[in-house]
Amino acid sequence: MWKIPTKEISYEDWKAERRKGIGGSDAAAIAGVNKWKSPMRVYLEKIGEIDSPEQNEAMYWGRVMEDLIAAEYKKRTERHVRRCNYILIHPEYEWMIANIDRVITDAKLGPGVLECKNVSEYRASEWKDDNVPAEVYTQLQHYLAVTGYGWGVIAALIGGNKFFTREFERDEEFIKNLIELEKDFWRRVEEKDPPPVDGSEDTDTVLNILYPEPIPDTAIELPADADTWIEEIEDLKIRIKELEEQKAEREQRLKAYLKDNEAGFTQKYRVFWKAVTSSRFDSKKFKEEQSALYEKYLKEQSYRRLTIKEG
């Protein structure tokens, strides 16, 4: 296992080193289990077409809480925990890298990886019943693949008041499949062969970043497959409408049974039909009564809309 020291490295230099390989969070996106990041975004980051995200408030608190979570794990288990001030590189695949939170030392198990997560209450349901999100498990197994360690721990502070830990063994079959996925992805990076689009919201965001405005009065001939794509889009629109109507009909059945009651229950579920009051800004009235002020605060926004027409 090779190492690149990071203790004295700048954030920009650290990002540059990360672009040279696939890290743990990248691995989860490449495997299709990261809800917030698509393979397309990872690809474009690696070839330098778009920048990786700047440090934000969530990232800042994640780093701050990492120390607390690692210290709490050490306190509860009495295992030795130390920082790893290196970018670690797989001995065989130099594009497979790891920035691990901590190394754990256990007298019987030897060294292991400690991955610390600060989880908002909003995502607490993903951690219920001793579960961990697939993206976090993938990240840990990627780290075990790079380090060669046989075990690791995911420690999380959930909603600011619940401490969670779960220990995992190295999963050789999972790692084998993950390496194959990453190997193919890195081939794409080297050959400038972008991954296919995946329907994710993030891929849509990336495409809008890459192509924010069309060149006026330009047109190209689309591939023959485009006819099939368009027909499938039109068919899906019809199916979505039918499903929405079916959903509405089932909801109406419940409302018809509830009548004036606020709630109902079955052996499995509780259903609520409550009154909700909200305050909304009446932009139409404001425009009529304060037209000058309305015009002053209008903000022009530009975006691209995809439309399909016959002929």
The chain-level structural class is: alpha+beta
CATH fold-level assignment of the largest domain: Lambda Exonuclease, Chain A
- Helix and strand sequence: EHHHHEEEEEHEEHHHEEHH
Largest sheet: 5 strands, mixed
Number of domains: 2
CATH class of the largest domain: Alpha Beta
Q: Overall mean pLDDT score?
A: 92
- The tally of beta strands, per DSSP, is 10
**Neighbour order of strands in the largest sheet:** 2-5-6-7-8
- What fraction, in percent, of the residue positions are helical? 40-55%
Low-confidence stretches: none
The CATH architecture of the largest domain would be: Alpha-Beta Complex
Report the C-alpha radius of gyration, rounded. Answer: 25 Å
Distance between termini?
59 Å
Beta fraction: 15-25%
**Coarse morphology:** globular
Assembly level: single chain
Number of helices: 10
Care to describe what's here?
The structure is a single chain. With about 300 residues, this protein is α+β, with helices and mostly antiparallel strands. It folds into two domains: about 1-200, Alpha-Beta Complex (Lambda Exonuclease, Chain A); about 225-295, no CATH class. It contains ten helices and ten strands. The chain has helices at about 10-20, 25-30, 40-45, 55-75, 135-145, 170-190, 200-210, 225-260, 285-290, 290-295, and strands at about 1-5, 80-85, 85-90, 95-100, 100-105, 110-120, 150-160, 160-170, 265, 270. It has a five-stranded mixed sheet with strand order 2-5-6-7-8. The protein has a three-stranded antiparallel sheet with strand order 1-3-4, covered by helices on one side. Strands 9-10 form a two-stranded antiparallel ribbon. Helix 5 links the parallel strand 6 and strand 7 (about 150-160). Helix 2 crosses helix 5 (about 135-145) and helix 5 (about 135-145) crosses helix 6 (about 170-190). The longest helix has about 35 residues, at about 225-260.
